[in-house]
Design goal:
With 135 residues, this protein is of the alpha/beta class. The protein has a single domain, classed as 3-Layer(aba) Sandwich (Rossmann fold). Helix content is 53%, strand content 14%. It is built from 6 helices and 5 strands. Strands 3-2-1-4-5 form a 5-stranded parallel sheet, sandwiched between helices. The N and C termini lie far apart (36 Å).
Length: 135
């Protein structure tokens, strides 16, 4: 089932911010589509940006995400918690990815990502960006 709501995963947001392959597509989605943005995505972008780019860049990226016209999801509702727990237990994925996948499922949003961990979630609408080649 197609949806007009898109959830960019952390990998998609960082693809755009780091101008990697697929950046233009993510930017177009963020500018033209209805966006669902769970707090866990902001958390991951923030901490990963601190690790690889420093606090100043992390704060700028966080502020940019907060300013995006989006439905910001800041709480773990019971449906998200239960579906996320099911995804984590069944597919042995990271906690963040289980919550992000659950949000996409519960809100019937298309999950935009470049993370092979999500491929197991065949019940979630997905738009896969080009994966990074291992070096």
């Amino acid at each position: 089932m197609k949806t007009d709501l898109f959830l960019p995963d952390t990998s998609a947001v960082l693809t755009m911010m780091d101008n990697e392959e697929g950046a233009e597509l993510v930017e177009d989605i963020l500018r033209t589509r209805e966006i669902l943005l769970p707090a866990i995505v902001l958390f991951e972008v923030y901490y990963k940006s601190i690790q690889y780019r420093g606090v100043e860049i992390a704060e700028l990226r966080y502020a940019t995400l907060k300013s995006i016209r989006a439905r910001h999801i800041s709480e773990l509702t019971e449906p998200i918690l239960l579906k996320g727990g099911e995804f984590k237990a069944t597919y042995r994925m990271s906690l963040a990815d289980a919550i992000i996948g659950a949000c996409a499922f519960i809100y019937n949003a298309t999950l935009v990502h470049k993370d092979p961990e999500f491929e197991a979630l065949i019940m979630v609408n997905q738009m896969k960006l080009p994966y990074k080649l291992k070096q």
